[in-house]
Model the fold of this input.
Amino acid sequence: MTTVKTNNYQFGILNRPFLLLILMAWGALPCGGQEADRTSTRLPDLWTAAKRGSLDEIHDALAGGAKINAQDKNGITPLCWSAMSGHKDAVADLVEAGADVNGCNSDGATPLIAAALLGRTKVIETLLEHGARIDVINDEGDGPLAVMEIPWETTAAKARTLGIEVDKYQVRLGRKKSAEVLRELGAVEGSGSPIGLAVLAGIIGGATWLTYRAKKK
Done:
């Protein structure tokens, strides 16, 4: 009878329960023992949550200490992100949580102006219910009615830059309905930037003065 010899060192580790458990646990880790990717569990910031319109994510971000009226790297507040994206429930939640309903982006646009640009009628109605002012203008001197006259190509380009999906027909229909709502409340068209008006007034005043002096001579 032939005897087969086995190298005990090859299987000796299996006789050590503690080391065996370690190996089993190591093999159960994602990527064969590499560190698990934790990015999927990281909470989004408040601006991203507001853009998504996710109420749970908004609440989590606020609970984590996010500043509700702060502007992001694009100069946009959380409330304006929700307004532009058409999330009326998120808009209501943010305002009730302390967001300034008339707070401005870096370009002077309020949430009402931001919503008007993309024809977000339901959002506009929600903002108005929470005290949004209709007599506001952005840094270009345009109010909510005026921004609804911005050409579609320009509007679509701005939306794409911000990563917001828009439909031409829906925007036009929304603008029409939104304009009706605002006009019923007494909104008027923006009349140009304050600086532009001041310059124009100066030109007119100067021309009038020169005409007057010419007549006196």
Summary: The CA atoms of residues 50 and 82 lie 5 Å apart. The chain has 13 helices and no strands. Residues 44-191 form a domain with the Serine Threonine Protein Phosphatase 5, Tetratricopeptide repeat fold (CATH 1.25.40.20).
